Amino acid sequence: MDRHLDVEELLTISEVAQLLRVDATTVRRWVKEGLLEGVRLPRASQRQSYRIKRSTLERLLGEGQK
């Protein structure tokens, strides 16, 4: 039985920064301040890791076009 999971693409902080043409530190700050919704990953190093859902980024970019 083939199960299709509707898994949403998660983008790294660096990928989001590149798409928005800002520094990765800025994206990290937006996530920490709650301006951009991020998914917190289990901590593997001293720095907290986040991922941004593609739909969140698309929604953010779409709001600017209204």
From TrEMBL:
**UniProt-listed SUPFAM superfamilies:** Putative DNA-binding domain (SSF46955)
Q: Which residues form a coiled coil?
A: none
Q: Name one Pfam family in it.
A: HTH_17
What the entry lists under Gene3D superfamilies is as follows: 1.10.1660.10
Domain Helix-turn-helix span(s) in chain numbering = 10-62
> What GO molecular function terms would the record report?
DNA binding
Look up the domain of life of the source.
Bacteria
Q: What is this protein called?
A: Helix-turn-helix domain-containing protein
Which organism's genome codes for this protein? Thermogemmatispora argillosa
